[in-house]
UniProtKB/TrEMBL annotation:
Its EC number is 6.1.1.22. This is Asparagine--tRNA ligase. The lineage of its organism: Bacteria, Pseudomonadati, Bacteroidota, Flavobacteriia, Flavobacteriales. It comes from Thermaurantimonas aggregans. The keyword Cytoplasm applies. One of its GO terms (cellular component) is cytoplasm. Belongs to the class-II aminoacyl-tRNA synthetase family. InterPro entries: Aa-tRNA-synt_II, aa-tRNA-synth_II, aa-tRNA-synth_II/BPL/LPL, Asn-tRNA-ligase, Asp/Asn-tRNA-synth_IIb, NA-bd_OB-fold, NA-bd_OB_tRNA. Gene3D superfamilies: Bira Bifunctional Protein, Domain 2, Nucleic acid-binding proteins. One of its GO terms (molecular function) is asparagine-tRNA ligase activity. It comes from the Bacteria. It catalyses: tRNA(Asn) + L-asparagine + ATP = L-asparaginyl-tRNA(Asn) + AMP + diphosphate + H(+).
Length: 475
């Protein structure tokens, strides 16, 4: 293709050469300077127009939001702010845009407003940066696993099993009921829309990944996950992407070591491969923080990311976490909305107290009460706690949920019964414990929570192009 991206243009700096670029006009100053952006990098490219050479009727069509293709000669820029610029020879308008009606005016818009126009926000500096960082993180994840001997597997999206047992599944149904076999009474059984069987959208690929790990050793799945989360929090989506490695012969400590090493690798990768975009978000956040009282400001984004890559995560048991919470001034002054006692599921306010107020660092919490965790986690000898590990980070709380899996057939079977799950529905899962079982472990990392952490965005709706939340699935 006879065109160059703005990212490459800045890299190569082909001074004196004739080049063609296409992009969206951010601003057109004094009928002379087009700030053009093509999405390849955050930086705009300055195109210098000699307005005497062009018809007024054409110049009028160069408006904020319009799409143009320009050809010209690259020169050194005399102005501050950019090393090179383009002396424009030809301009082609690819797409007009009515400047008055264009929702993205050349000023700062609120994130809430931009969520309303999610179809146009990729054209802003902030969202360009976020979505490019999202890309780099996804790439780094595959690179890490590939380098470390993991196989990338694909767990099913349509499945009958509710891995988490939380009843947060979306049911699969067909529009044309003629495709469903009728019951003996000649009726339609709507719960069995999947050609006579019940089927749901996956809430986690873990159980299936375990089957693959107990054959291939180390595997991971990285795909879309669906949960009927009828809540409006800053960290829950109804559709999110999850990274789920599963490793044969790994015990809880190996699992934690892997998760910590993995997170550090991914963050370091972003710091080197997405430095420009991170710098933009760092600056954006710093401006936001200025409006807060000094003692409530959080660590600058880049500093936080470096800190995380350079320091060991804190590791404590659930019981220790509860003790810390019980002794906290928040508990004593009854500032927690959910009261603290041994046995509760930690709420995000508790998680954030631990990471943000107490440790000021990521924290791995292990050995949760069996009753609040899923059936598949390895029971400890105390009979009360399981070999679970959650990783909590500042600003978000839980980002990783993992565990050593219960490998003992009898214990697993009694847990399944105790949790009221039908053992027939999990015969295939139980089979792996009947034939050549082995200790194994894994974890789930919510991709959007990782992107949130790395970009510093406080709302999960701002790190996925098309957020699925209650009432939001138009496009
Ligand atoms: P939470 O306590 O925040 O509801 P969870 O304990 O229900 O999370 P897990 O079942 O442990 O979540 O899933 C593993 C990981 O998937 C979580 O640590 C989180 O990073 C991510 N995750 C879970 N639910 C969501 C969601 N609704 N939206 C985005 N990410 C999610
Ligand atoms: Mg949940
Ligand atoms: Mg949780
Ligand atoms: Mg969890």
């Amino acid at each position: 293709k006879n065109e160059i991206s703005i990212a490459d243009l800045y890299k190569i700096q082909p001074i004196g050469r004739e080049i063609t670029i296409s992009g969206w006009v951010r601003t057109f100053r004094s009928n002379r300077f087009i700030a053009l952006n093509d999405g390849s990098t955050a930086a705009n490219f300055q195109c210098v127009v000699d307005f005497e050479k062009f018809e007024d009727s054409l110049l009028k069509r160069i408006t904020t939001g319009s799409c143009v293709r320009v050809k010209g000669i690259v020169t050194k820029s005399l102005g501050k702010g950019q090393p090179i610029e383009l002396q424009v020879q030809t301009i082609e308008i690819l797409g007009d845009s009515d400047a008055e009606k264009y929702p993205l005016q050349p000023k700062k818009h609120s994130l809430e407003f931009l969520r309303e126009i999610a179809h146009l926000r990729p054209r802003t500096t902030t969202f360009g940066a976020i979505f490019r960082i999202r890309h780099h993180l996804a790439f780094a994840i595959h690179e890490y696993f590939n380098k470390n001997g993991f196989f990338y597997i694909h767990s099913p999206i349509i499945t009958a099993s509710d891995a988490e047992g939380a009843g947060e599944m979306f049911n699969v149904s067909v529009l044309d009921k003629r495709n469903i076999p009728l019951t003996e009474n000649g009726e339609v059984d709507y719960s069995k829309d999947f050609f006579g069987k019940e089927a749901n959208l996956t809430v986690s690929g873990q159980l299936e990944a375990e089957l693959l790990a107990m054959g291939l050793g180390k595997v991971y799945t990285f795909g879309p996950t669906f949960r009927a989360e009828n809540s409006n929090t800053a960290r829950h989506l109804a559709e999110f992407w999850m990274i789920e490695p599963e490793m044969a012969f790994y015990e809880l400590k190996d699992n934690m070591d892997l998760a910590e090493d993995f997170l550090k690798y991914i963050i370091k990768y972003a710091l080197t491969h997405a430095a420009d975009d991170l710098a933009i978000l760092d600056q954006r956040l710093a401006e936001e923080e200025k409006s807060k009282p000094a003692d409530q400001r959080s660590m600058p984004l880049l500093e936080k990311l470096k800190f995380v890559t350079e320091n060991a995560f804190q590791r404590i048991t659930y019981t220790e976490a509860i003790d810390i919470l019980l002794q906290s001034p928040y508990h004593k002054k009854k500032k927690f909305q959910f009261p603290v006692e041994w046995g509760i599921d930690l709420q995000s306010e508790h998680e954030r107290y631990l990471v943000e107020k107490h440790f000021n660092s990521p924290v791995i919490i292990t050995d949760y009460p069996a009753a609040i965790k899923a059936f598949y986690m390895r029971l400890n000898d105390d009979g009360k706690t399981v070999r679970a590990m959650d990783i909590l980070v500042p600003g978000i709380g839980e980002i990783v949920g993992g565990s050593q899996r219960e490998e003992r057939y009898d214990v697993l079977l009694s847990k399944i019964r105790q949790f009221g799950i039908s053992e027939e529905s999990l015969w295939w899962y139980l089979d792996t414990r009947r034939f050549g079982t082995c200790p194994h472990s894994g974890f789930g990392l919510g991709f959007e929570r990782l992107v949130q952490f790395v970009t510093g965005m406080s709302n999960i709706r701002d790190v996925i192009p098309f957020p699925r939340t209650p009432g939001n699935c138009e496009f």
